[in-house]
Amino acid sequence: MIGVVELIIAGASAYSGAVACSYLDNPEKKKKSDNSRLKLRHYKKFKDYVAQKSKSFRKLISNSRKKGKLDLLLGDNLRQEQLKEISGNGEKTMTESEKRIEKRLKVSLASMGISALGNMIYFPLNLLSIPGLLYVTSPIFKNAYQAIFTERKVRIHTLTSFMLVSCIFEQYFFIANLTGFFFVYSRKMLSKIKDDSEKQIIDVFRQQPRFAWLMINDILVKTPIERIRIDDVVVVGSGECIPVDGVIVDGIASVDQQILTGESQPAEKETGSTVFASTTVLTGRICIKVQKAGNDTTVAQIGEILNKTVHLKADIQTKAEDFIDKAALPTLAASAIALPFLGIVGAASVLNNRLGYRVLIVTSIGTLNHLQLFSKNGILIKDGRVLDLLGKVDTIVFDKTGTLTLSKFSVAGIHRCSHYDADEILAYAAASEQRHSHPIAAAIVEEADKRQVELPPSDQTEYSIGYGIKVLIDKEYVYVGSDRFMEREGISIPSSIAEIIGRSHSEGNSVVLIARSESLIGAIELSPMIRPEAASVIQQIKKRNMGKIYIISGDHEVPTKKLAEKLGIDHYFAEILPHQKAEIIENLQKSGKTVCFIGDGINDAIALKKAEVSISLRGASTVATDTAQIILMNENLDHLLYIFDQAEAHDKTLRNCLAAIIAASAIGLAGVAFWDFGLVTTTILRVVSMSGSLGFAMLPLKKL
Q1: How many Cα atoms sit within 13 Å of 76 on the Cβ side?
Q2: Which DSSP symbol is given to 634?
Q3: DSSP letter, residue 241
Q4: Minimal CB count within 10 Å: which of 147, 583, 595, 653?
Q5: Helices (H), 353-438
Q6: How many CB atoms neighbour CB 137 within 10 A?
Q7: Percent of the chain at pLDDT above 90?
Q8: Nearest to 466 by CA among 269, 321, 239
Q9: Which one, of 395, 397, 703, lies nearest residue 573 by Cα?
């Protein structure tokens, strides 16, 4: 892609220089065309400057190619691989809009080639380039018409349409075709930095199983999800995702619902309990009578709300688009003033100095290079426009479960109620759980390893799973599980342990009871693990005065408040439903705040879509990663501040690019007014300014 840009810039420079020389050498042509009084020495300065910039630019490109830094712009790159991984799709197919752009780009190159031949060999050949030129630039005229007669505004397309008509009328066909190429190429570059995922329907079922085990006459039959009907009975075992909403008719299980409800503590489910699609059975085996399936499930309803939610970010312009539109009216006014004094060519020359498509091309290349820099550091930016919004953020909102905490547990305490000491209680629990993979079992085994506790041999041939497990160790049964499990097994719970259970649950912790020989010997309290980096990230945000920090959680009041206090966060909302999260974001926005929301669950998706800036983590629910603009691919919050720092660097790159082009435009306007610069001379200036600003746009590659 960069090769094409080099070719066009070099070709345009050579052609413009050749035409300028011919005008300078032929007084009659000079008078007829531009009335230019530009001296040959001035042109030589231009030529030397272009040659110098082109040489520097080619050197930077060559070095970048050798180091593999142009992967992003050449197509096969890390960012594209990250996008494929997050979207779950294979090769990306071109949209209809992208196909039209590619077609117009080819036609534009052909028309420009014909026009160049016409100027060099046989002038009437230029007429053959007109059909292609009109096809390529037809969107410019349509947009100009809409801007003037519908929006009652002057935009960049308005100026370009006037300039194109002037070029055709005055027979500057190559310059008109070059303008058409810049227009199409700017559309192509903008399409690369704008995320079109908001136009796609978010598939809430992508992370769910495609089949379920259907119970038919006491026989399990593997059945596609779409064939499941109301009142069918499906069977779900340990480690499996529940595919339907329904009621348990047989069995008991511990179910992880945090992806849907935000609760960190697993829910204990038994006959008569309601379960929901997308939640996961940690331990146990349950038979579920289907109440809702497919598009009628709770998670599907959230997806429907999500897809109907207005995506306010979809219509946001890039900073460059906004800037050139604001500059359009003053440029048109200057051209109108020039018309009676300098004629059509002079007025068109003023328009030729507009801040137009070259700005969009250069700033888009700069943005793409920054996006590559993000990808190299484990951050996927799906929509480049979000970099402009990051600098405005003054409120950062975190989801609690799965974002500030991990989907893992740690042992918070071991409570005794017998002569067994803490290590013995832990040893029996770890020996019973060591062959299970759910988070609570993993936490217990990890704690035993940390304490270097020797585990007694266990006979795993006799065990039962429900709210707990029953394992034969040293010829005696060991029971490990919840208070309900102990009650079902007829094991009494001392009042001291009952108090611990009540207190722990109110704090959002889980308690695993351990019994031996049908007598309770102790309890292990487990708490959700706070992300190791969370405290330092929060402190750095506060130190930089980046704005207020909030926690929004579907979890209970006590654990949410406890986490907020531990991390030093002053504001929090607890026991919040998914639609209420979005309402909180909207209320903050109505109070004048610009919100960055960071979440990972299905219950966070609507809030992610409402926030100006949305961030999720790799490994989160697919609904969250589909909705968020930014994905932390390393699955932690370490690079959160890096995102804001690089957004500032991106803004600096864009300002430098704009400054180079504005300076050249100012020189061009002064030249038209005082030195009789015409269309050819101002075109040379456009090429020079684009060459110089491309140098600024490529600077991020040096950081790779």
Answers
A1: 2
A2: T
A3: B
A4: 583
A5: 357-376, 386-390, 422-433
A6: 25
A7: 14
A8: 269
A9: 397
Q: How far apart are the first and last CA of the chain?
A: 19
From CA 249, how far away is CA 237, in angstroms rounded? 14
Helix (H, G, I), strand (E, B) or coil at 154: coil
Phi-psi region of 226 (alpha: psi -120 to 50; beta: other; left: phi over 0): alpha
Tokens of 367: 């943005």
Token pair for residue 544? 């930089």
Question: Within 10 Å of residue 121's Cβ, how many Cβ atoms?
Answer: 8
Note whether 243 and 399 are within 8 A (CB).
no
Whether the pLDDT of residue 103 is over 60: the answer is yes
Task: Give dist(CA 324, CA 347) in Å, integer.
Answer: 19
Instruction: List the strands of the sheet with 630-632, edge to edge.
Output: 379-381, 630-632, 613-617, 595-598, 395-399, 548-552, 571-573
Digit-coded pLDDT (tens) for 542-551: 988 888 999 9
Residue 439, φ and ψ in degrees, nearest 5: -55, -40
Q: Enumerate residues 6+ apart whose C-beta is below 8 A from 513.
A: 468, 479, 480, 481, 482, 483, 485, 486, 493, 497, 520, 522, 523
What's this model's pTM, rounded to 2 decimal places?
Answer: 0.74
Contact 259, 278 (CB under 8 A): yes
To which H or E segment does residue 248 belong?
strand 245-256
Separation CA 470–CA 518 (nearest Å): 11
Q: What is the C-alpha separation between 298 and 208, in angstroms, rounded?
A: 13
Residue 500, token pair as written in the block: 């611990």
How is the chain split among helix, strand and coil, in percent rounded to 5? 55, 15, 25
Q: Which residues sit opposite 211 in a β-bridge?
A: 224
Tell me the chain's radius of gyration from C-alpha atoms.
33
DSSP 3-state assignment of 456? coil
Q: Which of 25-29, 61-65, 284-288, 510-514 shows the lowest mean pLDDT across its residues?
A: 25-29
Q: What is the pLDDT of residue 423?
A: 92
At residue 385, the 3 state secondary structure works out as: coil
Strand spans (E) along 31-98? none
C-alpha neighbours within 13 Å on the C-beta side of residue 380: 26
**What are the chain's domains?**
2-194+318-375+646-703 (no CATH), 211-242+244-292 (2.70.150.10), 387-405+531-641 (3.40.50.1000), 407-529 (3.40.1110.10)
- DSSP letter string over 512-541? EEEEETTEEEEEEEEEEEEPTTHHHHHHHH
| Cα–Cα distance measured from residue 348 to residue 334, given in angstroms and rounded to the nearest whole number | 10
Q: What is the largest CA-CA distance in the chain?
A: 112
Structure tokens at 113: 């080639």
- Which residue, chain included where needed, has tokens 């034969």? 472
Strand partners, 165: none
